[in-house]
TrEMBL record:
<dbReference type="Pfam" id="PF12697">
    <property type="entry name" value="Abhydrolase_6"/>
</dbReference>
<feature type="domain" description="AB hydrolase-1">
    <location>
        <begin position="3"/>
        <end position="227"/>
    </location>
</feature>
<dbReference type="GO" id="GO:0016787">
    <property type="term" value="F:hydrolase activity"/>
</dbReference>
<dbReference type="InterPro" id="IPR029058">
    <property type="entry name" value="AB_hydrolase_fold"/>
</dbReference>
<dbReference type="InterPro" id="IPR000073">
    <property type="entry name" value="AB_hydrolase_1"/>
</dbReference>
<dbReference type="InterPro" id="IPR052897">
    <property type="entry name" value="Sec-Metab_Biosynth_Hydrolase"/>
</dbReference>
<keyword id="KW-0378">Hydrolase</keyword>
<protein>
    <submittedName>
        <fullName>Alpha/beta hydrolase</fullName>
    </submittedName>
</protein>
C-alpha cells in the first residue's frame, strides 16, 4: 500500500520524517513530496497556484502502478489538496485521511485571511494562532519550526477549490482531530457554514481524536503514525 503524505502550510516533505519512519517500518511505501514553491525560501512562488500543487500530487498518484492501493494523507492546508486529488482520481484512492483538517468544498479557499507579502505568505507570529493550535509545541519545537518554515505561495492559500466528480464522496474519509473533538465537529457540520458543505455527501466518515496541537507530526508523531496506519488498513 502506498501512502502519500502532503504537508500543511510552510512545510516541505521532510516535515513528515518522524511520522514516515514508523510507517515505513510498518510495511507501507511512503511518499513525502515537497510541492512547488516550498523547496527553498528562495523559490519563485509567483506562478504557483493551488491547481499547480494539486497537479503534482495527481501525477504522483498516476505514477504508482496498479494494483497498489493509494491512501492520501493531508495535514491542515494539505487537506484541500488531497480532496481535489480524490476528486481527480476517485478510482485510485483507497482512503483519504485529513490531519486536523477536512474536505474543502467547491469554491472555498484554504485561508484567505493570512497576511501576504507579495507572492507569498510568511509563517505568522505565534500570537496569530489559537491556544489549541499551539498545544504541545514547546519553545524548542517553535524555534525549530520557525527555522525550517518556508513561505507559502499566496495563491495556494487564496485560490478557490474546484471539484468536478461526485464519485469523490464514495471514497472513505478519516479525520484525525488534534485541536477539536468529535462533538465540536458535529457542531461545525450543523452550522451550515460553506466550509463543511462536503460532509453531508460523504458515504463513509470516521473521526479519530488525537488531542494535541495543530502539528501532531511534531508533538505526537508516533501516535499519529499509528492512527494513520490503522485508518489506512480499515
Amino acid at each position: 500500500m502506498d501512502l502519500i503524505l502532503i504537508p500543511g502550510f510552510w512545510l516541505n516533505g521532510d516535515s513528515w520524517n518522524d511520522v514516515a519512519r514508523p510507517l515505513r517500518d510498518d510495511g507501507f511505501t511512503v511518499h513525502t513530496p515537497t510541492l512547488a514553491g516550498l523547496h527553498s525560501v528562495d523559490d519563485d512562488r509567483s506562478g504557483v497556484t493551488l491547481a499547480t500543487q494539486i497537479a503534482e500530487v495527481v501525477a504522483l498518484v498516476d505514477s504508482i502502478e496498479a494494483p497498489s492501493e493509494v491512501v492520501l494523507v493531508g495535514h491542515s492546508g494539505g487537506g484541500s489538496i488531497i480532496h481535489a486529488v480524490v476528486d481527480a482520481r476517485p478510482d485510485r484512492i483507497r482512503r483519504a485521511i485529513y490531519v486536523d483538517s477536512w474536505p474543502t468544498a467547491e469554491g472555498v479557499a484554504v485561508n484567505e485571511e493570512l497576511e501576504a507579502v507579495g507572492d507569498e505568505v510568511p509563517l505568522p507570529g505565534w500570537g496569530e494562532f489559537g491556544e489549541a493550535d499551539l498545544r504541545g509545541l514547546t519553545d524548542d519545537l517553535r524555534a525549530w519550526f520557525r527555522r525550517i518554515a518556508i513561505p507559502q505561495p499566496v495563491r495556494v492559500a487564496r485560490d478557490p477549490q474546484r471539484l468536478h466528480d461526485p464519485r469523490r464522496w464514495a471514497v472513505p474519509v478519516t479525520l484525525i482531530a488534534s485541536t477539536f473533538t468529535r462533538e465540536e465537529l458535529d457542531g461545525y457540520r450543523a452550522s451550515g457554514h460553506p466550509y463543511f458543505a462536503e460532509f453531508p455527501h460523504l458515504s463513509s466518515l470516521t473521526v479519530v481524536e488525537l488531542p494535541t496541537g495543530h502539528w501532531p507530526q511534531f508533538t505526537r508523531p508516533v501516535e499519529l503514525a499509528a492512527a494513520i496506519a490503522e485508518a489506512a488498513r480499515a
